[in-house]
Amino acid sequence: MLEENDPQYTFDQVDPEKYMEDIADEIKDSLNNIVIMYGYELVRLVGVAIDDDDSYYIVQQKDKKNHYYSRVGGFVDLKKYLPEQDYTYVEQMFSLNFGKPVEQMMKEFHGKSFLDGCMEQ
To answer: Which of 56, 64, 66, 70 could tie 99 with a disulfide, CB 3.0–4.6 Å?
Structure first.
């Protein structure tokens, strides 16, 4: 069995259930927080998803719908950087205008590239 840091290790060799738990554990402290995704998009982090090709953050955007962002881009958790009073204000405004926090983390498994057909051609 190849180790994850081996250059010959590929995404299809990952145990999906263990991988899902690992990435869910990575974001648990940021769940429901308002984050800056890819350096410019203000969203609420609500879960993780994986398919045969990639892993994704599930986020709520201003349209109150869930969107998927590849985990390659990363995020900045505003709660970790803003003073508490400032973050509380951002959270309240986001909840009022764009959607409430989720009750539990969303975790989604998808087969072969679930984003096929979702992207604009």
So the answer is: 64
